[in-house]
Amino acid sequence: MRTRIVKGTMNISSDGDIEFHTFGGDLTFSAGGKNEWTSPQTIIGAYEPIDVEDFPPENEKNKAGSIIAFIKPTSSYKGEFGIDYCEMNKDLTEITKIQGTNISAIEYIFDENTKQFKRATNIVEKYNAVKKLYHTKKYSESKKEYYATWVFLSVGQTANLRLNTFFIDKSKKVKKNEEFITFGENPNFEIKYKGQTNNQIKIFVEKHNKEYDFEIKALKTFDTVEYIKIIDEKSNEVGIIEMSPNKVETLEVKIIPIIQKIGSSPNEDIILKKDAQSFYEKIKIQDIMSTLNQKSLNQVGIQCKLMTNPNNLEFIVIENNKDWKNYFDEEKKALKNWNYDINATENRPPIYKNQDGLEVNRIGVDDSDNIIDKLINAYYDKYDKTRKYKGALFFISDCIYMQYSDNEKTYTESPNTYGISRTIPIKNNGIIIFREGLKKIETYPHELAHMLGLEHSFFDEKDNTILRTFYDNIEKNNQLKTQAEQFINNNDENIKILKENEKSLYKKKKYYIGEEDRWKKNYEEDKDDFNKNAYDDAIKKREEVEQEIIENNAKIDEFEKANQENRKVIEIINKNNKTFAKYINIITNIPYKIKQSKTKNYMDYYIDHIYFSKQQKIIIQNDIKDYL
Q1: In terms of CB atoms within 10 Å, which end of the chain has fewer, N or C?
Q2: Is the distance from CB of 246 to CB of 301 less than 8 angstroms?
Q3: At what angle do helices 532-588 and 461-525 cross, to 10 degrees?
Q4: pLDDT band at 537; cut points 50, 70, 90
């Protein structure tokens, strides 16, 4: 240690002792002038060693958290397991990337006040929207937030991962072969690094921003979130990995060819079946299932099981007849929704229930019948009238899609539409893959994920329109519910009054019955003293009271019946509002939207799909229950 006073005086003072001690070196005091020691007692003696706790050498910088370990996939990752991760700026103050996508690509965030997606105007808004989806901790004296990498591994599966060492103090000097990183014990996993296993691992720290590859294998199935701690040689926690519950659900999948019928022939059924079989065999079924189960839906705990009927290939026949003319354009070889305006009457039920049991009122509004619903109904009518099958129905077609314009009231060919499916209704298990989509394997997991509740990763103005409709419906329903509850309360007050009146009437009836009995007894005892008028009056009064009781009870029944009807209304409102809330959650569960084609997420429009996210897994696992 060297202390130098360039000019002036240095004063060291203390109410207690002041001790100078060197660990193996010399202690020298020198002065250009007089070196003066003043003390009531001065002792000169031999060196005595002292014990100083928590006194690390000068170059020992690795206090708790001075190193932080971040986890991300290796460069060879192709979607074999689920992983969601953040990357930070050099000061650990902001998230810069999510799953490799720059956070600046976020265009919209959900505003809780307006209940709408709004354009993100600054990085802080984007950062706040993202960070709430990750498990956070604070490490080191800096107390900066750390966002845990999320990993999904099914039992027996191994993830190859990359650990990056980040130095809080960039001037830190590493003690070679002494400072290392290892992992806390967790019996659900086996961790390997260069032949070492679990807490026997020593990843020797070399420098800032150094990468080390290791692997994690899931040994068991677990139902709750597990954590793998990353610790240093002093057992300080320097990072953590969030391991998702890894139960795998099996989703049944059917691939149903759509065959176009042209004209008629004596061997029509044989020809159509042959065409369907030929079309089915052209589809790369093995590649589709491999992509679903090894590169996409496996990341969120879904295993797709192809369901086939070896004796009877299931297929749907469409033709330009009365049944299909509103959904099929034979000339353009295109499928479409049947759109009609408020004047339409043909086969247009004014009110119908969707797959979620929600009543849809078509009176006075433009509306449409979806081609997906048409195909679903055609399948169940032909093959499964009791609708026992709940899995996914992939309808494959060599037709294109025709898009309807609400503004222009016309159809437009959309040959680049690969497929369509719907997040809403929730219990809608139909998917259509069109001509161009048949060539794009990634279309299958993208559309299946829509069916399982995932919206696009990018913004569409329709999102806000739909949200506004759902929130308005909930508000209107709540107003009706309040009115119904007030109606019930008023009726309950009336019933209370009527029941008190009922007690009074029964007392009157009892009195008049007593009078009737008294005069009857009087007649039996002394006919001369019998007052017939009084006796008849008692009977009349008793009968009048009995009629009042009947009328009173009828009013009670009327009020109770009205209450019963209003309670049913409230029950329907609660059920509908619950459904609307689910619809809202589908759209807002991920509170930000990224610019189209800027991510590698499966819900983006991008050729190189790789990822599903942690939040997407949560959504799908909630939705999958309706298809098991």
Answers
A1: N
A2: yes
A3: 170
A4: confident
Contact between 172 and 208 (Cβ < 8 Å): yes
Distance separating alpha carbons of residues 87 and 74, to the nearest angstrom: 14
Tell me if 442 sits within 8 A of 288, measured CB to CB.
no
Question: Cα 592 to chain center, whole Å?
Answer: 13
**378 closest CA partner among 361, 395, 401:** 395
Please classify residue 336 by burial: count the beta carbons closer than 10 Å to its beta carbon, then call 0-12 exposed, 13-18 middle and 19+ buried: buried
Q: 164: Cβ–Cβ under 8 A, 6 or more apart, which residues?
A: 69, 70, 71, 72, 209, 210, 211, 212
What does the H/E/C string look like for 534-558?
Answer: HHHHHHHHHHHHHHHHHHHHHHHHH
pTM of the model: 0.82
Answer yes or no: are the C-beta atoms of 67 and 236 closer than 8 Å.
no
* CB neighbour burial string for 422-454, b if at least 16 within 10 angstroms, e if fewer: bbbbbebbbbbbbbbbbeebbbbbbbbbbbbbb
Angstrom distance (rounded) from CA 108 to CA 95: 17
Beta strands 149-152 and 237-243 are parallel
H or E stretch covering 499: helix 461-525
Q: E strands of 506-606, at which residues?
A: 592-594
Phi and psi angles of residue 194, each rounded to the nearest 5 degrees, phi first:
50, 50
What is the secondary structure of 17-70 as a DSSP string?
Answer: ------SSS------SS------S------------TT---TT----TTSEEEE
Q: Which residue has the tokens 């009922």?
A: 502
- pLDDT per position as a tens digit, 466-521: 999 999 999 999 999 999 999 999 999 999 999 999 999 999 999 988 888 888 78
Task: Transcribe 468-484 into DSSP letters.
Answer: HHHHHHHHHHHHHHHHH
Rounded Cα distance between 617 and 165, Å, is 28
Least confident range of 46-55, 68-77, 432-441: 46-55
Give pLDDT, residue 55: 39
Give the phi and the psi of residue 273 in degrees, each rounded to 5.
-65, -40
| Number of CB atoms found within 10 A of residue 324's CB | 20
SS (H, E, C) 264-304: CCCCHHHHHHHHHHHHHHHCCHHHHHHHHHHCCHHHHCEEE
3-class secondary structure per residue, 303-353: EEEECCCCCCCCCEEECCCCCCCCCEECCCCEEECEEECCCCCCCCCCEEE
- Determine contact, residues 193/140, Cβ cutoff 8 Å: no
pLDDT score of 64: 46
Considering only 136-140, 591-595, 615-619, which range has the smallest mean pLDDT? Answer: 136-140
**H or E stretch including 433?**
strand 430-433
What amino acid is encoded at 349 in this protein?
Answer: P
**445 closest CA partner among 618, 258, 610, 244:** 610
Average pLDDT, rounded, for the chain: 87
In this structure, the chain runs to a length of: 628
Read off the pLDDT of residues 358-412 as tens digits, 9 standing for 90 and up: 776 655 555 678 899 999 999 999 999 999 999 999 999 999 999 988 777 788 9
Q: Which of 610, 627, 260 minimizes the C-alpha distance to 457?
A: 610
* Paired tokens of 365: 């509004």
**Vertex 264 angle, CA 260 and 267, to 5°:** 100
Pairwise CA distance, residues 296 & 251, whole Å: 14
